[in-house]
Fold this protein.
Amino acid sequence: MSNRKRYWLMKSEPDAFSIDDLQKVGIEPWNGVRNYQARNFMRDGMQVGDGILFYHSNCAVPGISGIAKVASKAYPDETQFDRKSDYYDPKATREEPRWMLVDVAFERKLKRVIPLEEIRQHTEALGEGFALTSKGTRLSVMPVTAAQWKLLLSLE
């Protein structure tokens, strides 16, 4: 793996866990991801110190609400082993965990939420590979290039 800083967009529903919640706790395990591609981004791609655009989804005004950073290497998501958890996976074992997570650390709230509607106005500049503006993309964790990161934060 390269030591080059990488960038990510991570989605959360604000009524489940918001940027305000992250600000209160400081660092939080990003648990409950149950998509293999999103898991692989956390497990194989994320490095401590990488930048995260914290995105509020499934709300009145979906959009980028803050900035965080990756605060740990990937490790097994404990919710996969908890029978009482909504994220329990009966096929996961401690010897062979299926689901991984990283800890996410608060950096700052944006001066304003950058709404998805406004982000879509920059689809061409963000490029074809920008998953958030691509049709049918539902990943909760997705890579962002350095140029996309810079463009998105310039909208603040």
Observations:
- The beta strands are 7-12, 27-29, 51-56, 63-70, 75-76, 100-101, 103-115, 141-144.
- The mean pLDDT is 94.
- Helices lie at 19-25, 36-45, 116-120, 123-126, 146-154.
- The two ends are 31 Å apart (CA to CA).
